[in-house]
C-alpha cells in the first residue's frame, strides 16, 4: 500500500477550513497594506539558493532537494520564499516600478529535515516582501502586518522577539570578537558548533543543544558592535513599534537561519516551547538584490508556516468558520424521477442554491438518512405521483413538515425558505 512520503502530509477536507481561513485573512491583510500576489516556480537554479542562503548553512549543505534534470541543469526545490521573489524582482525590472514594491505569496517549501510536530519536509508558507526602501518605518509596518494577521485569526499569547545583527560594515568586527570568544570554549560546544565556528559563526548563537547554552548565553552581544547607522535604525524601529502598541522582547541571540539577513531580525513565538515554537519570522536583507546581480536595493520581509498556524489554532481552540454544505437534497424514486431530478439540481445550482442528488436507486428512507448526514436543510422528494401532477414535495429536515410546490415555483419557494 502506498503512503504519503515521510515528512509530507495530505490536507484532508476536514482540515481545509483552517487553511482557507488563514488564506482569506492573509489576503485581507495584504489588501490593507498594499501587497500584490506573486507566484514563482516550485524549483529554481540551484545556484540561486547557494548564493543567497549561504554555502555554510545547514539548509544548503543538508536540507535541500537538489537534482539534475535531463538538460543537465542543476535545480533545487524551493527551500525558502524570499530568494525566488528577489530573482523575479530583478528579472522583470520591478526596480522601475514605484518603490517599495510589495509582494506576497503562498508557497510549498521543501527541506530535508527530521519530521516532527509543526515541521515537515514539504511545508507551506505565507510570506511577503517589501523591496526598495531602507526606512525602519517599513520594518515596523512589516512586523505590524504579521501581528495583525495573527490577531485577525484569533491567536493570543504571542511574543515578538527582536534583534539587530548589523550590516556588512559593522558585522565583521562583531564576528571577529565572537570567534575570539568561542575559540576559548570550543571543547565545551557540540560538534555542529565547531563546524559553525569555521563556516558560519553567527549561527553559534542559535544552537539549541543544551551543552551549548551557557557558552552562547555569555557571548558578546550584537547590539554592542553596531555602527551608528545600524544603531539608529534599531532604536527607530523600537520607537515605531511602540507607537503601534506592539510589545517586544530584545533577544541578543536571535540571528535567524539564513545568511542574507542584515540589521533587523524578528520572530513571533507562541507560549509553547520546542522546535516548532517559532510561528513566523523575518527581517531585513539589504544586500540580497545586489548579490543576485541587481542594483543595491534595501528590502525587508516576513514568512509564516501554515502548518504551524493550524497547530496553534487547534491548541488555542480557535474554530474557523465551517464551509457551508449544500442546503438542499433531492430524493428521487424511479428512473423517470431520477432523470427529472438531474434537471432540477442544475436549475437550483444556476440560481445559487447548493443541491445534492440521491444516487444509486436507494429507498426513500435511505435517501432521507443521507440528506440528514449531509446536513441538508430541505429535501425535495420526487416520485411518479409528483411527476404526473407537475409538483415536488419540500421536506423541512428539522421540523419534519413537508408540502407540495409546483415545480416551476420551486426556485422561488426555496429562496424564500432560505431567507426566512
How many domains? 2
Helix proportion range: 25-40%
| Uncertain residue segments | none
Question: What top-tier CATH class of the largest domain fits best?
Answer: Alpha Beta
Shape: elongated
Helix/strand structural class: alpha+beta
pLDDT average, as an integer?
Answer: 90
| CATH H-tier superfamily of the largest domain | Bira Bifunctional Protein, Domain 2
Total number of helices? 15
N-to-C span? 50 Å
Oligomer: single chain
* Number of DSSP strand runs: 16
CATH architecture of the largest domain: 2-Layer Sandwich
Provide the gyration radius in Å. 28 Å
Order of strands, widest sheet: 1-5-6-11-10-9-7-8
Approximate strand percentage: 15-25%
Task: Determine the CATH topology of the largest domain.
Answer: BirA Bifunctional Protein, domain 2
Question: How many strands, which pairing sense, and closed or not: the largest β-sheet?
Answer: 8 strands, mixed
Amino acid at each position: 500500500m502506498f503512503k504519503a512520503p515521510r515528512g509530507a502530509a495530505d490536507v484532508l477536507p476536514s482540515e481545509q477550513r483552517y487553511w482557507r481561513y488563514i488564506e482569506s485573512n492573509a489576503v485581507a491583510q495584504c489588501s490593507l497594506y498594499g501587497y500584490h500576489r506573486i507566484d514563482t516556480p516550485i524549483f529554481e537554479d540551484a545556484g540561486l539558493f547557494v548564493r543567497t542562503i549561504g554555502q555554510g548553512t545547514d539548509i544548503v549543505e543538508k536540507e535541500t532537494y537538489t537534482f539534475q534534470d535531463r538538460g543537465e541543469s542543476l535545480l533545487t526545490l524551493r527551500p525558502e520564499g524570499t530568494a525566488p521573489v528577489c530573482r523575479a524582482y530583478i528579472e522583470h525590472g520591478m526596480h522601475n516600478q514605484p518603490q517599495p514594491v510589495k509582494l506576497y505569496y503562498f508557497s510549498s517549501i521543501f527541506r530535508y529535515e527530521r519530521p516532527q510536530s509543526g515541521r515537515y519536509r514539504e511545508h507551506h508558507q505565507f510570506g511577503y516582501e517589501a523591496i526598495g526602501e531602507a526606512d525602519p518605518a517599513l520594518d515596523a509596518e512589516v512586523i505590524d502586518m504579521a501581528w495583525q494577521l495573527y490577531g485577525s485569526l484569533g491567536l493570543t499569547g504571542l511574543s515578538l522577539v527582536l534583534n539587530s545583527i548589523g550590516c556588512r560594515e559593522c558585522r565583521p568586527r562583531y564576528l571577529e570578537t565572537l570567534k575570539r570568544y568561542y575559540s576559548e570554549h570550543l571543547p565545551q560546544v557540540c560538534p555542529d558548533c565547531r563546524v559553525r565556528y569555521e563556516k558560519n559563526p553567527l549561527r553559534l548563537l542559535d544552537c539549541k543543544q543544551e551543552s551549548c547554552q551557557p557558552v552562547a548565553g555569555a557571548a558578546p552581544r550584537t547590539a554592542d558592535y553596531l555602527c551608528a547607522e545600524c544603531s539608529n535604525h534599531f532604536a527607530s524601529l523600537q520607537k515605531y513599534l511602540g507607537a503601534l502598541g506592539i510589545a517586544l522582547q530584545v533577544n541578543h541571540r536571535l540571528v535567524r537561519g539564513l545568511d542574507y539577513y542584515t540589521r533587523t531580525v524578528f520572530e513571533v513565538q507562541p507560549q509553547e516551547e520546542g522546535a516548532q515554537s517559532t510561528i513566523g519570522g523575518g527581517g531585513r536583507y539589504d544586500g540580497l538584490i545586489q548579490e543576485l546581480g541587481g542594483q543595491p536595493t534595501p528590502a525587508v520581509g516576513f514568512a509564516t508556516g501554515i502548518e504551524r498556524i493550524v497547530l496553534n489554532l487547534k491548541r488555542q481552540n480557535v474554530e474557523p468558520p465551517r464551509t457551508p454544505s449544500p442546503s438542499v437534497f433531492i430524493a428521487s424514486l424511479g428512473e423517470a424521477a431520477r432523470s427529472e431530478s438531474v434537471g432540477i439540481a442544475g436549475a437550483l445550482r444556476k440560481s445559487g442554491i447548493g443541491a445534492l442528488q440521491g444516487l444509486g436507486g436507494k429507498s426513500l428512507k435511505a435517501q432521507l438518512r443521507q440528506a440528514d448526514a449531509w446536513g441538508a436543510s430541505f429535501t425535495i422528494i420526487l416520485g411518479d405521483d409528483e411527476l404526473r401532477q407537475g409538483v415536488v414535495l419540500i421536506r423541512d429536515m428539522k421540523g419534519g413538515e413537508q408540502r407540495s410546490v409546483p415545480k416551476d415555483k420551486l426556485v422561488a419557494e426555496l429562496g424564500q425558505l432560505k431567507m426566512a
